[in-house]
Amino acid sequence: MPVRTARKQNRSRITGVAALAACASLLLTACGSTKDTGASGAAGGGGTGKVGVILPLLTSPFWQSYNDYVPKTATSEGVDALKTVNSNSDPSQQITDINNELNQGVKGLVVAPLDSAAIQAGLDQAERKGVPVVAVDVAPDKGKVAMVVRADNVAYGEKACDYLGQHVSSGKVVQIMGDLASVNGRDRSEAFRACVKKKYPKLKVLEIPAKWESDTAAAKLDTLLNANPDLKGIYMQAGGVYLAPTLQTLKSKNMLKAAGQKGHIVIVSNDGIPQEFDAIRKGEIDATVSQPADAYARYGMYYIKAAMEGKTFKPGPTDHDSTIVKLPSGILEDQLPAPLVTKTNVDDPKLWGNTVK
Questions:
Q1: Tens digits of residue pLDDT in 115-143
Q2: Which of 1, 137, 291, 344 is such that its CA lies 20 to 30 A from the CA of 149?
Protein backbone atom coordinates (compact mmCIF):
# COMPACT_ATOMS: atom_id res chain seq x y z
CA MET A 1 0.00 0.00 0.00
CA PRO A 2 1.49 3.14 -1.31
CA VAL A 3 3.40 5.95 0.23
CA ARG A 4 4.64 9.51 -0.09
CA THR A 5 8.45 9.69 -0.15
CA ALA A 6 11.40 7.47 -1.03
CA ARG A 7 13.10 8.32 2.21
CA LYS A 8 10.56 6.44 4.28
CA GLN A 9 11.34 2.78 4.75
CA ASN A 10 8.09 0.87 4.50
CA ARG A 11 4.89 2.14 2.84
CA SER A 12 2.19 0.62 1.65
CA ARG A 13 -1.20 -1.26 -0.10
CA ILE A 14 -8.50 -4.25 -5.06
CA THR A 15 -20.67 -16.87 -11.99
CA GLY A 16 -22.87 -19.44 -12.92
CA VAL A 17 -26.36 -18.69 -14.23
CA ALA A 18 -26.37 -15.15 -12.93
CA ALA A 19 -23.11 -14.35 -14.71
CA LEU A 20 -24.36 -15.82 -17.99
CA ALA A 21 -27.57 -13.85 -17.73
CA ALA A 22 -25.71 -10.64 -17.07
CA CYS A 23 -23.31 -11.20 -19.94
CA ALA A 24 -26.03 -12.20 -22.39
CA SER A 25 -27.34 -8.65 -22.55
CA LEU A 26 -23.95 -7.09 -23.19
CA LEU A 27 -23.70 -8.16 -26.87
CA LEU A 28 -20.18 -7.46 -28.14
CA THR A 29 -18.79 -6.22 -24.86
CA ALA A 30 -17.59 -8.48 -22.09
CA CYS A 31 -19.18 -8.34 -18.69
CA GLY A 32 -16.77 -9.64 -16.10
CA SER A 33 -16.21 -13.04 -17.62
CA THR A 34 -12.66 -13.96 -18.50
CA LYS A 35 -14.11 -16.21 -21.19
CA ASP A 36 -16.59 -13.89 -22.86
CA THR A 37 -14.81 -10.82 -24.18
CA GLY A 38 -15.57 -8.81 -27.28
CA ALA A 39 -13.33 -6.73 -29.50
CA SER A 40 -13.92 -3.00 -29.80
CA GLY A 41 -11.11 -1.86 -32.05
CA ALA A 42 -7.34 -1.82 -31.87
CA ALA A 43 -5.52 -0.63 -28.78
CA GLY A 44 -1.94 -0.69 -27.61
CA GLY A 45 -0.06 -3.29 -29.60
CA GLY A 46 -3.07 -5.11 -31.02
CA GLY A 47 -2.60 -7.78 -28.38
CA THR A 48 1.16 -8.13 -28.74
CA GLY A 49 4.21 -6.24 -27.56
CA LYS A 50 6.13 -5.60 -24.38
CA VAL A 51 4.30 -4.78 -21.15
CA GLY A 52 5.82 -2.64 -18.41
CA VAL A 53 5.02 -3.49 -14.78
CA ILE A 54 5.57 -0.77 -12.19
CA LEU A 55 5.61 -1.54 -8.46
CA PRO A 56 5.01 0.99 -5.70
CA LEU A 57 7.68 -0.41 -3.34
CA LEU A 58 9.48 -3.59 -2.41
CA THR A 59 9.94 -3.10 1.33
CA SER A 60 6.62 -4.76 2.16
CA PRO A 61 6.27 -8.56 2.16
CA PHE A 62 2.99 -8.09 0.29
CA TRP A 63 4.65 -6.34 -2.64
CA GLN A 64 7.57 -8.73 -2.57
CA SER A 65 5.09 -11.57 -3.06
CA TYR A 66 3.24 -9.69 -5.82
CA ASN A 67 6.58 -9.10 -7.53
CA ASP A 68 7.31 -12.83 -7.41
CA TYR A 69 3.92 -13.65 -8.93
CA VAL A 70 4.27 -11.22 -11.87
CA PRO A 71 6.62 -13.23 -14.13
CA LYS A 72 4.75 -16.47 -13.41
CA THR A 73 1.34 -15.03 -14.23
CA ALA A 74 2.68 -13.14 -17.24
CA THR A 75 3.84 -16.44 -18.68
CA SER A 76 0.57 -18.21 -17.91
CA GLU A 77 -1.48 -15.37 -19.45
CA GLY A 78 0.73 -15.10 -22.52
CA VAL A 79 2.01 -11.60 -21.73
CA ASP A 80 5.52 -10.46 -22.66
CA ALA A 81 6.29 -8.55 -19.47
CA LEU A 82 9.51 -6.62 -18.93
CA LYS A 83 11.38 -6.82 -15.65
CA THR A 84 9.42 -5.01 -12.97
CA VAL A 85 10.33 -1.45 -12.00
CA ASN A 86 10.25 -0.33 -8.36
CA SER A 87 9.17 3.28 -7.77
CA ASN A 88 10.56 3.05 -4.23
CA SER A 89 7.64 4.75 -2.49
CA ASP A 90 8.02 7.99 -4.46
CA PRO A 91 4.97 9.21 -6.47
CA SER A 92 7.09 11.55 -8.61
CA GLN A 93 9.51 8.74 -9.38
CA GLN A 94 6.57 6.62 -10.44
CA ILE A 95 5.62 9.18 -13.09
CA THR A 96 9.23 9.13 -14.32
CA ASP A 97 9.12 5.32 -14.38
CA ILE A 98 5.96 5.39 -16.51
CA ASN A 99 7.58 7.83 -18.94
CA ASN A 100 10.71 5.68 -19.14
CA GLU A 101 8.64 2.59 -19.94
CA LEU A 102 6.73 4.47 -22.63
CA ASN A 103 9.99 5.67 -24.16
CA GLN A 104 11.07 2.02 -24.38
CA GLY A 105 8.06 1.39 -26.60
CA VAL A 106 5.90 -0.73 -24.32
CA LYS A 107 2.44 -1.51 -25.66
CA GLY A 108 0.81 -1.86 -22.25
CA LEU A 109 1.38 -0.89 -18.63
CA VAL A 110 0.37 -2.50 -15.33
CA VAL A 111 0.84 0.03 -12.54
CA ALA A 112 0.20 -0.03 -8.80
CA PRO A 113 -0.33 3.70 -8.10
CA LEU A 114 1.30 5.28 -5.09
CA ASP A 115 -0.92 8.36 -5.08
CA SER A 116 -4.48 8.30 -6.46
CA ALA A 117 -4.29 11.90 -7.66
CA ALA A 118 -0.65 12.19 -8.73
CA ILE A 119 -0.84 9.13 -10.97
CA GLN A 120 -3.01 11.06 -13.45
CA ALA A 121 0.09 12.66 -14.99
CA GLY A 122 1.45 9.24 -15.89
CA LEU A 123 -1.91 7.99 -17.13
CA ASP A 124 -2.21 11.04 -19.40
CA GLN A 125 1.24 10.31 -20.87
CA ALA A 126 0.16 6.75 -21.66
CA GLU A 127 -3.13 7.88 -23.19
CA ARG A 128 -1.37 10.34 -25.49
CA LYS A 129 0.73 7.45 -26.81
CA GLY A 130 -2.23 5.12 -27.14
CA VAL A 131 -0.88 2.71 -24.51
CA PRO A 132 -3.53 1.05 -22.31
CA VAL A 133 -3.00 0.90 -18.55
CA VAL A 134 -4.31 -1.45 -15.88
CA ALA A 135 -4.14 -0.18 -12.30
CA VAL A 136 -3.52 -2.72 -9.53
CA ASP A 137 -4.42 -2.30 -5.84
CA VAL A 138 -5.16 1.45 -5.99
CA ALA A 139 -7.73 3.22 -8.14
CA PRO A 140 -6.76 6.59 -9.63
CA ASP A 141 -8.96 9.58 -8.89
CA LYS A 142 -8.78 10.63 -12.55
CA GLY A 143 -7.20 9.44 -15.75
CA LYS A 144 -7.86 6.65 -18.20
CA VAL A 145 -7.33 3.02 -17.26
CA ALA A 146 -8.71 -0.10 -18.90
CA MET A 147 -9.46 -1.68 -15.52
CA VAL A 148 -8.63 -1.42 -11.85
CA VAL A 149 -7.76 -4.78 -10.28
CA ARG A 150 -8.48 -4.36 -6.62
CA ALA A 151 -10.38 -5.82 -3.70
CA ASP A 152 -13.21 -3.89 -2.05
CA ASN A 153 -11.32 -1.68 0.38
CA VAL A 154 -14.53 -0.42 1.98
CA ALA A 155 -15.19 -4.04 2.93
CA TYR A 156 -11.72 -4.19 4.51
CA GLY A 157 -12.63 -1.43 6.95
CA GLU A 158 -16.05 -2.94 7.62
CA LYS A 159 -14.67 -6.43 8.27
CA ALA A 160 -12.12 -5.02 10.71
CA CYS A 161 -14.86 -3.01 12.42
CA ASP A 162 -17.14 -6.02 12.78
CA TYR A 163 -14.37 -8.23 14.11
CA LEU A 164 -13.32 -5.73 16.74
CA GLY A 165 -16.92 -4.86 17.57
CA GLN A 166 -17.75 -8.51 18.16
CA HIS A 167 -14.70 -9.12 20.36
CA VAL A 168 -14.42 -5.83 22.26
CA SER A 169 -17.61 -4.91 24.09
CA SER A 170 -16.58 -1.35 24.90
CA GLY A 171 -13.55 0.89 25.22
CA LYS A 172 -10.86 2.39 23.06
CA VAL A 173 -9.70 1.01 19.72
CA VAL A 174 -7.24 2.57 17.30
CA GLN A 175 -6.95 2.34 13.55
CA ILE A 176 -3.42 2.71 12.21
CA MET A 177 -4.32 4.30 8.91
CA GLY A 178 -2.68 4.28 5.52
CA ASP A 179 -1.93 7.29 3.36
CA LEU A 180 -5.07 9.36 2.83
CA ALA A 181 -3.64 10.47 -0.53
CA SER A 182 -4.42 6.91 -1.60
CA VAL A 183 -8.03 5.84 -2.15
CA ASN A 184 -7.17 2.67 -0.23
CA GLY A 185 -6.30 4.63 2.88
CA ARG A 186 -9.42 6.76 2.54
CA ASP A 187 -11.78 3.83 1.92
CA ARG A 188 -10.51 1.75 4.83
CA SER A 189 -10.43 4.66 7.26
CA GLU A 190 -13.86 6.03 6.42
CA ALA A 191 -15.50 2.61 6.33
CA PHE A 192 -14.07 1.59 9.71
CA ARG A 193 -15.05 4.89 11.30
CA ALA A 194 -18.60 4.84 9.89
CA CYS A 195 -19.17 1.18 10.81
CA VAL A 196 -18.11 1.67 14.43
CA LYS A 197 -20.30 4.73 14.78
CA LYS A 198 -23.33 2.92 13.36
CA LYS A 199 -22.98 -0.56 14.87
CA TYR A 200 -20.69 -0.37 17.89
CA PRO A 201 -21.26 2.98 19.62
CA LYS A 202 -19.63 1.77 22.85
CA LEU A 203 -16.27 1.75 21.09
CA LYS A 204 -14.20 4.92 21.00
CA VAL A 205 -12.10 5.22 17.83
CA LEU A 206 -8.62 6.71 18.07
CA GLU A 207 -6.61 7.25 14.90
CA ILE A 208 -2.97 7.20 13.81
CA PRO A 209 -2.30 8.63 10.33
CA ALA A 210 0.81 6.61 9.42
CA LYS A 211 0.99 7.02 5.61
CA TRP A 212 2.03 3.37 5.12
CA GLU A 213 5.25 4.15 7.05
CA SER A 214 6.44 1.64 9.63
CA ASP A 215 8.56 4.09 11.59
CA THR A 216 5.72 6.59 11.78
CA ALA A 217 3.34 3.86 12.96
CA ALA A 218 5.74 2.75 15.69
CA ALA A 219 6.43 6.24 17.01
CA LYS A 220 2.79 7.33 17.04
CA LEU A 221 1.56 4.08 18.56
CA ASP A 222 4.12 4.43 21.34
CA THR A 223 2.86 7.93 22.11
CA LEU A 224 -0.77 6.84 21.93
CA LEU A 225 -0.22 3.94 24.33
CA ASN A 226 1.47 6.23 26.85
CA ALA A 227 -1.71 8.30 26.93
CA ASN A 228 -4.12 5.37 26.55
CA PRO A 229 -2.76 2.30 28.38
CA ASP A 230 -6.34 0.95 28.48
CA LEU A 231 -6.47 0.40 24.71
CA LYS A 232 -8.62 -2.64 23.83
CA GLY A 233 -8.19 -3.09 20.09
CA ILE A 234 -6.06 -2.23 17.07
CA TYR A 235 -6.90 -2.15 13.36
CA MET A 236 -3.77 -2.15 11.17
CA GLN A 237 -4.59 -1.13 7.61
CA ALA A 238 -1.47 -2.79 6.19
CA GLY A 239 0.17 -5.72 7.93
CA GLY A 240 3.06 -5.64 5.49
CA VAL A 241 4.34 -2.41 7.01
CA TYR A 242 2.55 -2.18 10.37
CA LEU A 243 2.73 -5.71 11.80
CA ALA A 244 6.35 -5.75 12.97
CA PRO A 245 6.43 -2.23 14.47
CA THR A 246 3.08 -2.77 16.20
CA LEU A 247 4.14 -6.03 17.82
CA GLN A 248 7.54 -4.58 18.76
CA THR A 249 5.94 -1.52 20.34
CA LEU A 250 3.47 -3.62 22.35
CA LYS A 251 6.25 -5.97 23.45
CA SER A 252 8.45 -3.10 24.60
CA LYS A 253 5.64 -1.96 26.89
CA ASN A 254 4.86 -5.48 28.11
CA MET A 255 1.45 -5.17 26.45
CA LEU A 256 1.78 -8.02 23.94
CA LYS A 257 -0.45 -10.68 25.50
CA ALA A 258 -1.52 -13.79 23.61
CA ALA A 259 -5.18 -14.30 22.75
CA GLY A 260 -6.97 -15.73 25.75
CA GLN A 261 -4.64 -14.09 28.25
CA LYS A 262 -5.71 -11.26 30.49
CA GLY A 263 -4.87 -7.91 28.95
CA HIS A 264 -4.83 -9.20 25.35
CA ILE A 265 -5.36 -6.40 22.86
CA VAL A 266 -7.52 -7.61 19.97
CA ILE A 267 -5.74 -6.92 16.67
CA VAL A 268 -7.07 -7.22 13.13
CA SER A 269 -4.97 -6.47 10.08
CA ASN A 270 -5.05 -6.26 6.28
CA ASP A 271 -2.82 -8.02 3.72
CA GLY A 272 -2.72 -11.79 4.31
CA ILE A 273 1.06 -12.16 4.33
CA PRO A 274 2.71 -15.25 5.87
CA GLN A 275 3.97 -13.20 8.82
CA GLU A 276 0.40 -12.28 9.75
CA PHE A 277 -0.64 -15.92 9.57
CA ASP A 278 2.19 -16.87 11.91
CA ALA A 279 1.14 -14.11 14.31
CA ILE A 280 -2.45 -15.44 14.26
CA ARG A 281 -1.21 -18.95 15.05
CA LYS A 282 0.79 -17.58 17.99
CA GLY A 283 -2.18 -15.56 19.25
CA GLU A 284 -0.31 -12.28 18.81
CA ILE A 285 -2.98 -10.94 16.45
CA ASP A 286 -6.49 -12.23 15.92
CA ALA A 287 -7.41 -11.75 12.27
CA THR A 288 -6.44 -10.30 8.91
CA VAL A 289 -8.14 -9.68 5.59
CA SER A 290 -6.26 -11.57 2.90
CA GLN A 291 -5.55 -9.18 0.05
CA PRO A 292 -5.02 -11.41 -3.02
CA ALA A 293 -1.45 -10.75 -4.21
CA ASP A 294 -1.63 -13.74 -6.56
CA ALA A 295 -4.92 -12.66 -8.13
CA TYR A 296 -3.70 -9.07 -8.44
CA ALA A 297 -0.83 -10.31 -10.58
CA ARG A 298 -2.93 -12.76 -12.57
CA TYR A 299 -5.79 -10.43 -13.44
CA GLY A 300 -3.49 -7.49 -13.97
CA MET A 301 -1.93 -9.53 -16.76
CA TYR A 302 -5.28 -10.79 -18.01
CA TYR A 303 -6.79 -7.32 -18.31
CA ILE A 304 -3.73 -5.69 -19.92
CA LYS A 305 -3.69 -8.39 -22.58
CA ALA A 306 -7.40 -7.87 -23.19
CA ALA A 307 -6.93 -4.10 -23.37
CA MET A 308 -4.09 -4.46 -25.87
CA GLU A 309 -6.43 -6.58 -28.00
CA GLY A 310 -9.05 -3.83 -27.88
CA LYS A 311 -11.46 -5.70 -25.62
CA THR A 312 -13.62 -3.83 -23.15
CA PHE A 313 -15.78 -4.75 -20.18
CA LYS A 314 -18.97 -3.69 -18.45
CA PRO A 315 -20.17 -3.97 -14.85
CA GLY A 316 -21.39 -7.37 -13.74
CA PRO A 317 -20.36 -10.66 -12.16
CA THR A 318 -17.26 -12.45 -13.42
CA ASP A 319 -16.37 -16.10 -13.75
CA HIS A 320 -13.72 -15.77 -11.01
CA ASP A 321 -15.99 -15.00 -8.04
CA SER A 322 -15.72 -11.23 -8.28
CA THR A 323 -17.80 -8.35 -9.55
CA ILE A 324 -16.87 -5.54 -11.92
CA VAL A 325 -18.27 -2.23 -10.69
CA LYS A 326 -18.23 1.29 -12.06
CA LEU A 327 -16.60 3.75 -9.70
CA PRO A 328 -17.93 7.31 -9.27
CA SER A 329 -15.09 8.45 -11.55
CA GLY A 330 -16.49 6.24 -14.32
CA ILE A 331 -13.54 3.84 -14.09
CA LEU A 332 -14.26 0.11 -14.00
CA GLU A 333 -12.94 -1.97 -11.11
CA ASP A 334 -12.82 -5.73 -10.75
CA GLN A 335 -13.36 -6.23 -7.03
CA LEU A 336 -11.63 -9.49 -6.19
CA PRO A 337 -12.53 -11.58 -3.14
CA ALA A 338 -10.60 -10.89 0.07
CA PRO A 339 -11.53 -13.32 2.87
CA LEU A 340 -11.22 -12.72 6.58
CA VAL A 341 -8.60 -15.02 8.09
CA THR A 342 -8.76 -16.08 11.75
CA LYS A 343 -7.41 -18.97 13.78
CA THR A 344 -10.20 -21.18 12.41
CA ASN A 345 -9.09 -20.94 8.76
CA VAL A 346 -5.49 -19.69 8.93
CA ASP A 347 -4.14 -23.03 7.68
CA ASP A 348 -6.35 -23.09 4.57
CA PRO A 349 -4.02 -24.15 1.72
CA LYS A 350 -6.01 -22.03 -0.73
CA LEU A 351 -4.86 -18.81 0.92
CA TRP A 352 -1.96 -17.33 -1.03
CA GLY A 353 -0.11 -16.54 2.17
CA ASN A 354 0.20 -20.29 2.78
CA THR A 355 1.78 -20.92 -0.61
CA VAL A 356 4.70 -18.50 -0.23
CA LYS A 357 7.99 -20.16 0.65
A1: 999 999 999 999 999 999 999 999 999 99
A2: 344
